Amino acid sequence: MNQTAKAFEAGKRGYRVRIPFGSSHGTLNVSSTGAGGAAASSATISRHKIVVPQVLHKFVIGSRGGTLSSIQYETNARIIVPSKHDKCDFIEVEGSSKEVLMAEQRIQHIVNANIQKVPFTHFISLPISDVGVQRRVGDFQKAVQQELPTVAERLSMTNPAQLHITAGMLRLITPEQVAKAVEMLKSLQAEVCGLLDDKPLVIKLGQLAAMEASLSQARTIYVHARELDESSSEKLLQLCAMVRGVFDKEGYFDEKRPFKIHVTIFRSKWTKQGLLGECKRGSGGVVDATSLFKSHGELSFGACRIDQIQIAKRFWFTESGAYVSEGSIALP
């Protein structure tokens, strides 16, 4: 096949690739729309947009444009990747109907293969908003700094305004996905109230625990969250399970870790967040928490009411320090 060298642009970066003569000039799930809304015939050149979240554009481009070059060469379609500064969640494909379809399929495959490399962006949160509990946790953290300075210097302390129970991690990478997740949560309002018998969900926080088996090798330290009314001790777990089940059925969850109800108050400073929101542990990412548990293991922070479930945005905070909420439902 005759070839020629041709330059193309992905954002502001230019690449020079080899493509066959006759290549057309110039769209996840892959949904596409053609010019004028009509399907293009095999003899007609048209431009389609396919929904590809911007965070995945780099995988379609590939190292030094190699993946994009390969797709264009193999499908004979022209592919236009918007600049990252445009903040566009789509890619345009131009060619005949057959060429566009082939390119869409290749792009879909690349997206599916790389979606889990995108960091979690949100989580389903049951925030601990009680001011008294937050104050007591803050006072405890200050006491640890004073009483156990060698332990405290290796710990990152959760902002009391950010205390929460995580019902599940979410990867919402377009505004449409965020809106759909919020809509799904809101649709559960009546079912949630029914499960709780329209009664407040009151929990007690206390008793330190570590995610790791050995206290001398701790990375994440949390407190248990249990219902105050022991006669309804399964309501919190049932609530989380119900919400998780609905979101899991719709394909929102791909977590490998078992679910555990907990409220994190400390992390080791050398523990970093990985791509999937999991802890990446280096050789120094542990702390010997034996003395902490010996002196404060049975500590109680009191009771509080859980008043909402929200879709919280990771790494985004309000002026008070709490996580930004994309949307929520109120609990009884």
UniProtKB/TrEMBL annotation:
GO terms for cellular component: nucleus. It comes from the Eukaryota. GO terms for biological process: DNA alkylation repair; regulation of DNA-templated transcription. InterPro entries: AKAP7-like_phosphoesterase (IPR019510), ASCC1 (IPR009210), Cyclic_Pdiesterase (IPR009097), KH_dom (IPR004087), KH_dom_type_1 (IPR004088), KH_dom_type_1_sf (IPR036612). This is Activating signal cointegrator 1 complex subunit. Pfam families: AKAP7_NLS (PF10469), KH_1 (PF00013). It comes from Coemansia thaxteri. One of its GO terms (molecular function) is RNA binding. The keyword RNA-binding applies. Keywords: RNA-binding. Residues 44-112 form the K Homology domain. Gene3D superfamilies: Cyclic phosphodiesterase, K Homology domain, type 1. The lineage of its organism: Eukaryota, Fungi, Fungi incertae sedis, Zoopagomycota, Kickxellomycotina. The keyword Ligase does not apply. SMART domains: KH.
